[in-house]
Amino acid sequence: MQQSSVRSYRFTGFDWFCLWYPPGWLILFNRHWQHYHADPDGWNGLEYALFLIPGGFYLALLLRWLRLGCRSPRSSVAEFDPNYQNAFRDEIVAPIVQYYFRAELHQTENLPETERLMVAMNHAGMCFPWDFIVLAYLLADTRGWVVQPLASVSLFDHPWVIWWLPPGWSQVLGGVRAELNEFEAAVTHKTVLLYPPEGVHGPGKGWSKRYQLETFHPSFIQLCDRYHLPVLPVLCLGSESLHPWALNVKKLARRVSLPFLPISPLMFVFLLFPSMGVWAMRTRLSYYIQPLYESWTDEGSDQTVRTETSEGGTALKVHQGQMAAPPTIRRSQAYRNAQHLREKLQNQLSRLLSQKSDTP
């Protein structure tokens, strides 16, 4: 994106309407993209209007499919564009964070100066990953960091995502597929990586277990050890209310190739307005920065633990939305370190929840 040659996107009265009318969030995302990118396969004005009426999205989808010659939108090879990330953050995410999620960053004295680290955060909500998007915005706004989230491959390639959002949208905004080669490419640059150590089990645990941290996958410990990436743990309160009272229907999720499929009273509204797939309930997101954690200096760990590459190299595979780490001498030690960190964060999370409940 040659941002210097394109007039900045102006948040109009129609955009404010879309912000406060949930079916309009998908319009916000696509209109902003089309302001900076040629997108002949994208949604048009009539189709946007249909988003706003019950059941209209299905007619809009049919009209677009016919307009494209009865085919899916063309895929494209997309690369991270920091200029567009900045534009989207300042022109779309900023008003959402300020007026809708009312997000706050606490304990900022724990933020390090380094820009080469991994941020590990508890993940919940069973919806579009607003807890991560908002944290990325806050870190960039506070420190000026370039922030890129790691995500399951299914969240990039699923047919629903391809029709909802422009091809390559997630990659252009900095999304990193949970694969070894993608991770290594991101690590070589001065960037901050966001990673959910619970994997898809985090948002998939549902409302009843919203404050229970799932088992941390050891891959992030192995990779941080291999590249000497410090981990910045962050605890988020309020993300469970992005899609409250949700249950995860695992069998049905597998049938439609999704990492999780929430069922709640909101799903009846979603069936009438499928464009609400990128929306979430209004809540207050609070982020608590924890002290920096370095796996290779973890108390009780064997400091000789190192991730080794087998002959011919390794591939970081994806299993149920998590990164499967490359072969290592002491994978068991990495697992112990990961669960040690999980226990510390669970204790801290319980303490924060107790303090919150005691506050009048």
UniProtKB/TrEMBL annotation:
Domain Phospholipid/glycerol acyltransferase as annotated: residue spans: 117-239
Annotated signal peptide: none
Molecular function as annotated in GO: acyltransferase activity
Keywords noted in UniProt: Membrane, Transmembrane, Transmembrane helix
Chain residue ranges for the region called Disordered: 300-326
Highest taxon, organism lineage: Bacteria
InterPro entries linked: Plipid/glycerol_acylTrfase
Membrane-spanning ranges: 12-28, 48-66, 260-281
Record's compositionally biased regions (Polar residues): 302-312
Matching SMART domains: PlsC
Protein name as it appears in the record: Phospholipid/glycerol acyltransferase domain-containing protein
